[in-house]
From TrEMBL:
It comes from Lysobacter yangpyeongensis. InterPro entries: Cupredoxin. Residues 1-21 form the signal peptide. The lineage of its organism: Bacteria, Pseudomonadati, Pseudomonadota, Gammaproteobacteria, Lysobacterales. This is Carboxypeptidase regulatory-like domain-containing protein. Keywords: Signal.
């Protein structure tokens, strides 16, 4: 019975620990108030570099698949950690010539219908723009970051972080359609208390969708 009581005590302690975490909901809209999907939201401890890897818990590298279907990459934006791998799959009935000119990871390969690439390791933080050399309207972005908390917004323009400790944070937002050569949008006045639920709103001024007018010779990533 003593062991059982100890087990119940441990479970209760874990439940209290979970309840003590702060929650942050981030909502991203455009200048007309419409939700913005595929915006990458990162949360970092204030006054610390956004790619400070020592704060990351130990984790095994993961592999994510980018599909090519109906002449589009899915997802449009995907989030990775350094050391993760990406695989490209061709679910179309036509060939795709996948490539990137990115200085942090240049690559290219041709995928026949139904084929998939070998896993491609992403070692460095940054943004990689990927296109198809046959279909210029196809583009996707690989966002690689060491930020302790990172996610991309859903179709409603929302992302939620439910495991933040109390403290002071910077919240950054990036989206492919933001004007080039500008830093991420940042809110640096976020102070979270234990058990607090906070919501932040970001309003973005976006350029036209690059998937409709992609210039592979002048991509900025």
């Amino acid at each position: 019975m003593r062991k059982q009581g100890s087990l119940f005590g441990l479970v209760a302690l874990l439940c209290v620990a979970d309840l003590s975490a702060a929650e942050l909901e981030v909502r991203v809209v455009d200048r007309h108030g419409a939700p913005v999907a595929d915006a990458v939201v990162t949360v970092v401890v204030r006054n610390e570099a956004p790619n400070e890897s020592r704060r990351l818990p130990a984790r095994a590298p993961s592999t994510r698949v980018i599909d090519q279907k109906s002449l589009a990459f899915t997802p449009y934006v995907e989030v990775f950690r350094p050391g993760d791998e990406v695989v490209y799959r061709n679910s179309d009935r036509t060939r795709h010539h996948v490539y990137s000119f990115s200085p942090i990871k240049a690559f290219e390969f041709v995928l026949a219908p139904g084929a998939r690439s070998e896993p491609l390791k992403l070692e460095r933080s940054g943004v990689i723009a990927v296109g198809c050399n046959i279909h210029d309207g196809m583009i996707n972005y690989l966002y690689i970051s060491d930020a302790p908390w990172i996610a991309r917004t859903d179709g409603g323009g929302v992302v939620a972080f439910r495991d933040l400790p109390a403290g002071a944070f910077d919240v950054r937002v990036w989206q492919p359609r933001l004007p080039p050569k500008r830093p991420d949008l940042v809110q640096s006045d976020l102070n979270l208390r234990t058990d607090e639920h906070r919501r932040l709103d970001f309003s973005l001024s976006l350029l036209p969708d690059s998937r409709l007018q992609f210039d592979r010779e002048h991509t900025r990533y």
